[in-house]
């Protein structure tokens, strides 16, 4: 058993954080993804860009197991997770935020974070009321500090500004020591001030956490990532560093408009 554990740990350290090989997803006759091959390294921050209908959210759904791929393989830190259910991928350190809020609006900021921590812990089915010294409660408070919401600990989520709710979603994604987080349009609906705060928050995440961000706001996406993948009609269209993608004539024409400069 010790040898197996050591071997698994060695494989995890030497492998990429995420590797997709020839991933496709069909919905009947509709081909939503076609032959996607991507490798994300440990601690890498990557943007997936593209117009509506390009296949970005379907790609996230394939990675998380919400809609497993029709063809191809997905490896997470060296382990083949292609057929694993979503819950098992979460147990291995994969997290995700959604374009539409998944928060408990009637509960406080701290309660939401506590439930996020409890949901990925061994005691998640316990009905015991947590005390101040409860490890899950301590973790919830640490995450609250990390996303700059400590001053709103007891505020009902329904009373938060939209940008604060996005901050809370990021905090919840940090529950349980994630190794890779998928952010689905975290800047959607944010004001210019809130977008700047989001950029600083994403830049300040622990360096060991890799993430992939889907984002239409390129002023946000290109400032917080190391590398970009551009999708078009369910296929990979371009890849490169942020400055290369921003300067690419095809990307400007198709996604940014001819007047981008």
Automatic annotation (TrEMBL):
One of its GO terms (biological process) is L-alanine transport. SUPFAM superfamilies: P-loop containing nucleoside triphosphate hydrolases. It comes from the Bacteria. GO terms for molecular function: ATP binding; ATP hydrolysis activity; L-isoleucine transmembrane transporter activity; L-phenylalanine transmembrane transporter activity; L-valine transmembrane transporter activity. The keyword Nucleotide-binding applies. InterPro entries: AAA+_ATPase (IPR003593), ABC_AA/LPS_Transport (IPR051120), ABC_transporter-like_ATP-bd (IPR003439), P-loop_NTPase (IPR027417). This is Branched-chain amino acid transport system ATP-binding protein.
């Amino acid at each position: 058993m010790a040898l197996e554990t050591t071997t698994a740990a060695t494989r995890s350290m030497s492998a990429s954080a995420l590797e997709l090989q020839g991933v496709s997803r069909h919905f009947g006759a509709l081909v939503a993804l076609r032959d996607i091959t991507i490798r994300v390294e440990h601690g890498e921050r990557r943007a997936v860009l593209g117009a509506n209908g390009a296949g970005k959210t379907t790609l996230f759904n394939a990675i998380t197991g919400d809609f497993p791929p029709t063809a191809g393989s997905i490896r997470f830190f060296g382990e083949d997770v292609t057929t694993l259910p979503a819950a098992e991928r979460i147990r291995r350190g994969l997290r995700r935020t959604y374009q539409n809020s998944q928060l408990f609006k009637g509960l406080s900021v701290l309660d939401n974070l506590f439930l996020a921590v409890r949901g990925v812990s061994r005691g998640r089915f316990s009905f015991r009321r947590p005390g101040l010294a409860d490890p899950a409660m301590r973790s919830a408070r640490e995450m609250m500090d990390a996303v700059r919401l400590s001053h709103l600990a007891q505020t009902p989520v329904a009373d938060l500004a939209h940008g604060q709710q996005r901050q809370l979603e990021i905090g919840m994604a940090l529950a349980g020591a994630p190794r890779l987080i998928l952010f689905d349009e975290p800047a959607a609906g944010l004001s210019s001030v809130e977008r700047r705060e989001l950029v600083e928050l994403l830049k300040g995440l622990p360096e060991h956490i890799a993430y992939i961000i889907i984002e239409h706001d390129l002023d946000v996406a290109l400032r917080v990532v190391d590398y970009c993948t551009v999708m078009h009609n369910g296929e990979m269209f371009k890849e490169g560093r942020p400055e290369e993608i921003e300067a690419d004539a095809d990307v400007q024409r198709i996604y940014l408009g001819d007047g981008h400069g």
